[in-house]
Known about the structure:
Blueprint: E1 4-6, E2 9-11, H1 14-27, H2 29-38, H3 50-59, H4 64-77, H5 85-90, H6 93-98, H7 103-117, H8 131-138, H9 146-155, H10 168-177, H11 186-193, H12 200-210
Antiparallel strand pairs: 1-2
Helix pairs in contact: 1-2, 2-12, 3-7, 8-9, 10-12
Amino acid sequence: xxxxxxxxxxxxxxxxxxxxxxxxxxxxxxxxxxxxxxxxxxxxxxxxxxxxxxxxxxxxxxxxxxxxxxxxxxxxxxxxxxxxxxxxxxxxxxxxxxxxxxxxxxxxxxxxxxxxxxxxxxxxxxxxxxxxxxxxxxxxxxxxxxxxxxxxxxxxxxxxxxxxxxxxxxxxxxxxxxxxxxxxxxxxxxxxxxxxxxxxxxxxxxxxxxxxxxxxxx
Length: 218
């Protein structure tokens, strides 16, 4: 699939997005209701590069608003060197901490920078790898688990059939939308999500957006 760029962001072609939405609505009546409530599919993609993964680490377990502020400070701090492994490693850990990054996230981003600099992670190779190979590769970095690797698969590599089965937002949206008494376990999320194949990434996007609809998920 060839993405199109609008206002600096990458999107799938309109025809592809319509195909995905049609499949989700036909495959699952509950998801169909979520699609109707949320509206058009507008998932945007980042470039599959070092800065995108560093951004994902910075955003871990933070609200989007807070994370954007902290990451913006980091970008400003490395402006002369750019958001590159070398630019990050030129900053002292204390300087990174002063920007609002936790001690752990500072270590994680610096480890990613070292792994990239040393050729352990080669971003140019990732598009040719399978989803499983990408996850195995990225989780070599301290602080990058399956969830972060899945986010990179979705939002940077543009993989269309990734299911974030361990994501709390996904579990919460499914619980509400499907009238469950408790949060579904990862295996239950995978069972429910089987019908969304091969577009489980879009289903995740809709589930996340459903939590923003007035009144919460359907």
